[in-house]
Amino acid sequence: MDFLRCESLLLFLCVIGCCAGQDILPDGPVDAVLGRDLVLATLFHEKPDYSFMIWSFNGGSEPVSVATLGATSGLTVNPDYEGRVSVNATNGYLSLTSLKSEDTGDYSFTIVSTKGVTKTAEIKLRVLKPVSDVVVRSDLPEAVEHNSTVTLTCSAQGSFLTFTWKNDSAPIKADGKRLTLKDEETSSTLTVSAVLRSDLIGPITCTAANKLEKETSAPFNLTVHYGPDKVVLSPPNSPQFIRSGSNFSLSCSASSSPAATFVWFRNQTAFEASGPVLTLEMIQKLGSGNQVEEYTCRAKNTKTQRSVSSLAVSFAVMDAVSGTRIIGPDVTLIAGNSTVNLSCQATAGTVKTRTWLKDGKPVSASSRLVFSADQSSIKIDPLQKEDGGQYTCQLANPINTDHASFNMVVNFGPEPAVVVGEEAVEVNDPVKLTCSASSVPPANFTWKFNGTVTPEKTAQYTIKTAVYKNTGMYTCEAHNAITGKTATYSHKLSVKEEGALDEGLSDGAIAGIIIAVLVALAAAIGLIVYCRQKVPVESPY
Ligand SMILES: *[C@@H]1O[C@H](CO)[C@@H](O)[C@H](O)[C@H]1NC(C)=O
Ligand SMILES: *[C@@H]1O[C@H](CO)[C@@H](O)[C@H](O)[C@H]1NC(C)=O
Ligand SMILES: *[C@@H]1O[C@H](CO)[C@@H](O)[C@H](O)[C@H]1NC(C)=O
Ligand SMILES: *[C@@H]1O[C@H](CO)[C@@H](O)[C@H](O)[C@H]1NC(C)=O
Ligand SMILES: *[C@@H]1O[C@H](CO)[C@@H](O)[C@H](O)[C@H]1NC(C)=O
Ligand SMILES: *[C@@H]1O[C@H](CO)[C@@H](O)[C@H](O)[C@H]1NC(C)=O
Ligand SMILES: *[C@@H]1O[C@H](CO)[C@@H](O)[C@H](O)[C@H]1NC(C)=O
Fold first, then answer.
1. Do 438 and 514 reside in the same domain of the chain?
2. Which of 127, 142, 181, 260 has the most CB atoms in a 10 Å sphere around its CB?
3. What is the mean pLDDT of residues 499-520?
4. Is the shortest distance between the CB of 326 and ligand 6 below 6 Å?
5. How far is the CA of 433 from the centre of ligand 7 (A)?
């Protein structure tokens, strides 16, 4: 009965003490790591007045005594705690060694003074499992951008864990849409739907922590396959014609993970070429290319299963024109009697245009000059002297222009000969007669005097000092050895006595007089005709 009353009193005191007791224990809770040692401190700095100090424990069901320290009777330890606990006789600190999980709970401390005043306080202890084995795992070994939903699980050992995720150094936060986070006791799940290539290159780390400890996972990467993105053909444009055999190629690129594979198409038809570069050599090996055709490349990513085509580039392959030559006559050509045909050919290349020039100017058709339908030859019939000259034929295509020349020599003449020189000289005067006659090849000249051949063989006949017997007829004969034609011209010379030519009117004056007389005569005739028309003639009837 006494005991019961005492217990009730203690409980009553305890309730009072609880309310006033926090000046004997600090605020809790206290966290401690499993297996480690712990001291539960009181707030006493010096030895208080006490007859008993009592530590008890409530693990959730019933309170049990841990240890009681009597000022005179000494320490009494609950057998369950034997060897693990001690109470400092000076300040009442409770020491607990080798903490167990079951030590988690409420500890109460009661101090009974020598006067029987009792104070009680409580403090909560949490024994935490250490944080360990923090690992990030993915439910997928690799992912496909936009398609995959990736779930990363961070698991850890430990108690009272909280998890944080980081991408490189930036915290990952749930956005309620693509990114969701779900925490459980010993794991956290990060779910990324429609994953992007940038989401998980991180590296991603997960940190598990409790009050006392934290541990971070090893960096985690997940390969997110993507692409091919925009597929680019280079060069994006090309000339319409590419010179056959030249160093031309198309290259295709696309950003893609893993790297894309490339196949090529000509006019939408796949042709047997793969790889990022399509060379002209491959195009030519795989057939013509002589028409303007469209080339595209298609990039394919085997992981994402996506294929993307480039824009098209169009061109044709063309051979350069080479080996141009003119085939012309190899016989002697004579004006008025020859016909010629010049034809122009190339040994290689596709000729698109043919142009003929003579002495640098375009050749035009005429009644004597006709072009063949394809302009590859010209025919001149009959040949005339003005047809002689340098003929050039130009063969061109969009790649290049090649040309050849032919020098055409047209033999003709001599044309009518002319002698220029004095007609009358005084004795001892010099005489110089010049004969000319246009001719190809140049004519050979011979001179005759009064019908007798002279030794002179040039175009000029000279007499240093004239004598009377030089008077007579000088005939120049111009002869063309190729045409066989000869032209002659006779010139009269008279040698007169000294002074005979000084007087008299000059040739100019004589000409002036003659003209004046003619003009006067014409005026007179004109007047007469005029008068005849104006004056009415009487009818004879
Ligand atoms: C008890 O606590 C006092 C004061 O803090 C200290 O000096 C003393 O060494 C402690 N006693 C034991 C047995 O630990
Ligand atoms: C993650 O990826 C980055 C970039 O590809 C690389 O530099 C890093 O070494 C990777 N880390 C791990 C743990 O695979
Ligand atoms: C072809 O062109 C490329 C790039 O212009 C150059 O690197 C290469 O040496 C060239 N090859 C030949 C055979 O000229
Ligand atoms: C990705 O998603 C698209 C559209 O939903 C689908 O057509 C495609 O087959 C998917 N790709 C892969 C590799 O699963
Ligand atoms: C023109 O040619 C014909 C035949 O070749 C020849 O008989 C004739 O003599 C020639 N005439 C001239 C002026 O050369
Ligand atoms: C010139 O000769 C060639 C070959 O003999 C012939 O094919 C061509 O038609 C001739 N040209 C003309 C304009 O007659
Ligand atoms: C040449 O002929 C002319 C006229 O026909 C004559 O006057 C002259 O005496 C002749 N000269 C000679 C050297 O024969």
1. no
2. 260
3. 70
4. no
5. 18
What is residue 507's predicted lDDT score, i.e. its pLDDT? 67
Who lines ligand 1 at CB under 6 A? 88, 90-91
Mean pLDDT (the chain) is 90
Q: Does 168 sit in the ligand 2 pocket, CB within 6 Å?
A: no
> Do 102 and 202 share a domain, yes or no?
no
Query: Could you tell me if residue 439 is inside a domain?
Result: yes
Residue 53 Cα distances to 67, 71, 110, 459, 464, angstroms: 8, 8, 6, 159, 169
Cα-to-centroid distance, 18 and ligand 1 (Å) = 26
Q: Is the pLDDT of residue 519 over 50?
A: yes
Structure tokens of 42? Answer: 């009181």
Tell the residue nearest (CA) to atom 13 of ligand 5: 337
Domain C-terminal end among 318, 343, 364: 318
- Pocket test of ligand 1: the residue of 47, 53, 88 to mutate, having most ligand atoms within 8 Å of its CB, is 88
Look at the chain and report how many structural domains it folds into.
6
Helices (H), ranges, 159-301: 280-285
Angle, alpha carbons 126-129-134 (nearest 5°): 135
Question: Are 14 and 112 found together in one domain?
Answer: yes
The residue whose CA has the least distance to atom 6 of ligand 1 is 90
Beta strands in 346-388 (DSSP E): 353-358, 361-362, 369-371, 377-380
Q: How far is the CA of 244 from the centre of ligand 1 (A)?
A: 101
- Ligand 7, atom 6, residue with closest C-alpha: 472
pLDDT at 499 over 90: no
Whether the pLDDT of residue 537 is over 90: the answer is no
Eight-class DSSP state of 226:
B
pLDDT single digits (tens) 242-297: 999 899 999 999 999 999 999 999 999 998 888 999 999 999 888 867 789 999 99
Domain shared by 61 and 121, yes or no: yes
Atom 2 of ligand 7, nearest CA residue? 472
Residue 54's φ and ψ, nearest 5 degrees, are -125, 125
301 lines ligand 4 (CB under 6 A): no
Atom of ligand 4 nearest to the CA of 304: 13
pLDDT score, position 286: 86
The neighbouring-strand residues paired with 271 are 264
Residue 505 maps to a domain: no
Atom of ligand 2 nearest to the CA of 219: 13
Q: What is the pLDDT of residues 378-426, one digit of tens each?
A: 999 999 999 999 999 999 999 999 999 999 999 999 999 999 999 999 9
**Which one of 318, 346, 368 terminates a domain?**
318
Q: Is there a single domain that holds both residue 266 and residue 356?
A: no
| Residue range(s) defining the domain that contains residue 473 | 418-496
Pick the atom of ligand 7 nearest to 449's CA. Answer: 1
Confidence at 14, pLDDT banded by 50, 70, 90: very low
Element (H, E) at 301: strand 293-301
Alpha-carbon torsion 19, 20, 23, 25, what sign?
A: negative
Give yes or no: residues 434 and 484 share one domain: yes
CA of residue 495 to ligand 7 center, whole Å: 11
Q: Does some domain include residue 503?
A: no
Question: Residue 45 C-alpha to ligand 1 middle, in angstroms?
Answer: 11
How many Å apart are CA 105 and CA 86, to the nearest integer? Answer: 18
* 501: in domain: no
CATH number at residue 287: 2.60.40.10
Q: Are residues 350 and 291 in the same domain?
A: no
Q: How far is the CA of 348 from the centre of ligand 3 (A)?
A: 25
Query: Are residues 474 and 493 in contact, defined by beta-carbon separation less than 8 angstroms?
Result: yes
